[in-house]
Structure formats: structure tokens, C-alpha cells
Amino acid sequence: MKNYIKVFAPATVSNVGCGFDTIGFAIDKPGDIVTLKLRFDGKVRITKITGDNGVLPADIKKNTATVAILELLKYYKDKSIGVDLEIRKKMPIGSGLGSSAASSVAAVYGMNKLLNNYFSEKDILNFAVKGESIASGAVHADNVAPCLTGGFILIRDYNPLEIIQLPVPKNLYCTVVYPHIVIETKKARKLIKKQIPVSSARKHFGNIGSLVTSLYEGNIDLLGRTIHDEISEPVRAKLIPYFFDIKNAALNSGAYGCSISGSGPSVFAFSKSHTAAVKIGKSMQAVINKNRIKSNLYISRINKTGPKVIA
Ligand code: HSE
To answer: 207 and which of 86, 226, 277, 281 could share a cystine (Cβ 3.0–4.6 Å)?
Structure first.
């Protein structure tokens, strides 16, 4: 039995305009790295966390990665199995890029590899969702699912969790701009209204169906038109300084749709080439920089592989 593994898990963009809690996709960078070393005394320990500026809990009952591991171990036959975890945050926390999902996915994916794939992918998904729920205060799988499987994911139902993998258009590029402010998903979720008008629901039904169609057809023009949000963006835009200026800059530079990534503050936009993705990103950043807020720019294709064993 191999007793050491190092896993990279990618960042994800969730909601994707019309798919609140139901659509997400993975991007190539950034991502998190988790190192796991098996123990044979049943203990789970976090030995080191780096890149988090000291904000992540080292308490195994509060950290998303270890909560996911503890859930997995509940269902493992051998109670003497434990693990030492080292978490290297390689992406910003509270950025709307699925940071907690990446850590929980890397942890349980790696643990399952050490246990010779004892659990199915579906089990792993459920364990990772459990970890993620500690961070966001609610069960939502639109970061965890694409992080685990790669590509675009549709969540058909939560009870029980049923996910559907969607195709990825060949020439689809994603621009993500992360303004350096922190938004806690837990707080941002409290802003979501419990009810929406039928007129808004109708727009979402039309757009979600069209988004799925656009992915099957590889039709990025149509995909761009579906990036419309009646649920999250209207109530969360105010958390992101100059959000509408950033969005307009992206659309005016040729983006096929632009909206908040997850609960923000990152903002994503689609395009058809690397050159266009860079141009869009620079114009989004220009708005942010002009207002003296620092930002990161990530240009990526859609990640189709999910977690990767790197050692
Ligand atoms: N769908 C979740 C939300 C994603 O919008 O709250 C959080 O990253």
C-alpha cells in the first residue's frame, strides 16, 4: 500500500450566470495542493497549512479538508487508518473560485487513492460536499463537482445528489479577474432571496436549457447570451466594487458573457481565443486598477481532468 501522495485540485467557477447552485466548471489554474501521509493509529492531523495568511482553521473539525476526510473514514472498514495532511493554498481564499472545494476534493481524492480506490467517485463527491459545507454554511456542489470531475457540470438534484457531465466546446477560454477583497460565501448566501418572481424563473429556465444546448453544439455565441443572472448577481453585485464597470469593460472588449464567479468577488468572462481572453482580462483589470484595488488575472481553458496526482 502506497502511504504518501500529493494531489493538485483545480479552481472552479460556479453559478455561471443562470445556474445558481446547479452549474459549474473547472479551470486549469489556480488550484490547491494537498499532501497526505497515511497513519495507522486512526488519527487525523493537519501538520502544516501554507499560503493562507493564517486564516484557515487547523482544528480538524473545522477545516474543510479534514471534515471531508473524517466523513470518508466514517465509512472505511479499517478504523486504525488515519492521515497527516499538509495543505498548500495556491489560490486566494474567499475569492469565489472554489478554494474550500479544491482543498476538500484534493484531500478525499488523495485519501481514496491511498486506500486503493476503495470508494466510488460518487462517494468521494459526497464526502467533499460535506467538507465544503463547513466553509459555506450550506450544501452546494457546484464547485466540488466540477473540481472532482473536471469540465462543465450540471447538478440535476441534491437529494440525492445527481450530477451530469456536459461537453466542453473546443475553443472556449475563460478569463477570471480576482479583485483583492474577501467575500465569505456564508455571508453572501444570506443575501439570496428565498423566493423569485415567475418572470425571473422563466428567464432562468430558458437560459439554463440554452446553456446546456450551447455546450452540446459548441456554440459560444449562444453560451454568452445565457450568462444572465436573476438570483445572485442582482443582490451580490454591491459586494464587488465597480462590478458593473468591470462587466461592461469585459463585454465591450468582446466577451461572450460575464458575471460573478460563485459568490465573488472574482468575475469571469468567456471568449474564443487566448488573445481575446487576455485583452478582456486587461480591460477588466484596468477598471479595478484605476480604482486602486489590486487584482489577479487568470486566463485558462476549461480544465477537463479534475484533480491530478503530482507525487
Ligand atoms: N453556488 C454557490 C453560491 C457557490 O453562489 O453561494 C459559492 O462559491
So the answer is: 226
